[in-house]
């Protein structure tokens, strides 16, 4: 999943970038409100971590402008922690509000929760913390995957790849889409990184089980779907 961090404190922004990258996210960083708004409007992000106090354009103004166009989940991260401030941020369209100083593990858990939205609605669904297909289940908060009740031992990239495929189950995703969304790179036809990752994921996801879920559409890409009843 691709995240945008809008934070003017350079050290904190770098801390967040490194930490979230280590959790398997792809992270873009902006250090002021105008740059953050531009990236938020133009990019395809799973969530945005937004500081409230920013140079150029403050976080509340950025959030207001963003909400007029897009429903990207937003976690507001700020030193302003009064009740009225938190309520104001939530009423302005923030999906969650975390006050500095914070525990990084809590930030990650909250990010996983706020990204659980229905594909056709901008409403927040706190109960949607898992994704399912047939006997496959992903726990997006604990970052655990099971199939037929058996745990799948996945790397961070494999988990993110499977999450993307499962969120868009039934949709054929091109190599270019996978490269951008999971690896934050432009697709190079001369590299086989996507094919290698898919092969490794398929070995864990499908090989031990009777019904394959991950399918290759030649010349098009890959799709995750249950074809056992087709």
Would you write up a description of this structure?
- The chain is of the alpha/beta class and 230 residues long.
- Helices cover 37% and strands 20% of the residues.
- It contains eight helices and eleven strands.
- Strand 7 (136-139) and strand 8 (144-147) form a beta hairpin.
- It is elongated.
- Mean pLDDT is 85; it is low at 118-128.
Question: How would you concisely characterize the structure shown here?
Answer:
This protein is α/β, with parallel strands linked by helices and 230 residues long.
Key features of this structure:
230 residues, 5-stranded parallel sheet, 4-stranded antiparallel sheet
Topology readout:
Blueprint: E1 2-6, H1 10-22, E2 26-30, H2 33-42, E3 47-51, H3 59-67, E4 74-78, H4 83-91, E5 96-99, H5 104-114, E6 130-133, E7 136-139, E8 144-147, E9 150-152, H6 156-167, H7 175-183, H8 193-205, E10 214-217, E11 221-224
Parallel strand pairs: 1-2, 1-3, 3-4, 4-5
Antiparallel strand pairs: 6-7, 7-8, 8-9, 10-11
Helix pairs in contact: 2-3, 6-7, 6-8
Overall strand count: 11
Spatial order of the strands forming the largest sheet: 2-1-3-4-5
N-to-C SSE series? EHEHEHEHEHEEEEHHHEE
Strand content: 15-25%
Q: Which radius of gyration do the C-alpha atoms yield?
A: 18 Å
């Amino acid at each position: 999943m691709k995240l945008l961090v809008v934070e003017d404190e350079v050290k904190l922004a770098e801390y967040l970038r490194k930490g979230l990258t280590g959790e398997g996210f792809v992270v873009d960083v902006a250090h002021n409100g105008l740059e953050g708004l531009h990236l938020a409007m133009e990019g395809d992000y799973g969530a945005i971590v937004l500081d409230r106090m920013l140079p150029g354009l403050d976080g509340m103004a950025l959030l207001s402008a963003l909400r007029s166009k897009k429903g990207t989940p937003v976690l507001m991260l700020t030193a302003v922690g009064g009740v009225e401030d938190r309520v104001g941020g939530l009423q302005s369209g923030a999906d969650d509000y975390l006050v500095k100083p914070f525990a990084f593990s809590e930030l990650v858990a909250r990010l996983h929760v706020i990204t659980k939205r229905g594909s056709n609605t901008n409403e927040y669904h706190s109960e949607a913390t898992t994704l399912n297909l047939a006997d496959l289940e992903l726990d997006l908060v604990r970052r655990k995957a099971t199939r037929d009740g058996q745990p799948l031992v996945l790397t961070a990239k494999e988990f993110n790849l499977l999450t993307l495929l499962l969120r868009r189950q039934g949709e054929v995703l091109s190599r270019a889409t996978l490269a951008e969304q999971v690896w934050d790179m432009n697709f190079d036809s001369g590299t086989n990184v996507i094919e290698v990752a898919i092969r490794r994921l398929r070995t864990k996801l499908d090989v031990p089980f009777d019904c394959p879920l991950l399918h290759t559409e030649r010349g098009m890409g890959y799709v995750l779907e249950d074809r056992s009843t087709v």
